[in-house]
Amino acid sequence: FSYPGETMFGRGAVLPLPGGTPLLDPLAQFFQRYPGLSWRVDVRVQTAYGTAYDQNLAEKRSEMLATYLLSKGVSLQGLTFEPQAAEGPSLVFTLMQSLQEAKK
Fold first, then answer.
1. pLDDT tens, 74-83?
2. Which one of 18, 29, 66, 89 has the fewest CB atoms closer than 10 angstroms to its CB?
3. d(CA 81, CA 76)
4. Beta strands of 32-99 (E only): which ranges?
């Protein structure tokens, strides 16, 4: 699942755009239905303010997302947040294959 460009966050903002977090509600419901899955959550930011700013903003957005998902009853045990000062979609959820499954 990915949320490109400024679908979720305004340029340079920590808080989601109005109507942004309800986009996560179906995903939160999915996570609750399938709690045994592991996900990598890439939170990417690239602005004109530099790498340190972008990394800090990505970390704050990750914290906000974790708090929002917790408020919806999602266990964070299967989610690994990866905040990055990087180009690309601002928010990407990637299903991770377990090591045991990968070896089969």
1. 999 999 999 9
2. 18
3. 9
4. 38-45, 79-85, 91-96
CA-wise closest residue to 78 among 32, 9, 46: 32
Place of tokens 């340190």: 52
Task: Tokens for 60, please give them.
Answer: 């704050």
Q: What is the DSSP secondary structure assignment for residue 34, as one 8-state letter?
A: -
Q: Can you name the residues that pair with 81 across neighbouring β-strands?
A: 41
Which tens digits make up the pLDDT trace of 54-98?
A: 999 999 999 999 999 999 999 999 999 999 999 988 889 999 976
Residue 39 in tokens: 């996900």
Question: Which two structure tokens, joined as six digits, stand for 70?
Answer: 């917790």
Residue carrying structure tokens 């602005």: 47
Contact 28/74 with Cβ under 8 angstroms? yes
Backbone phi, then psi, for 89, in 5-degree steps?
Answer: -55, 140
Q: What is the pTM assigned to this prediction?
A: 0.81
Q: Name the 3-class secondary structure at 56.
A: helix
**What DSSP designation does 78 have?**
G
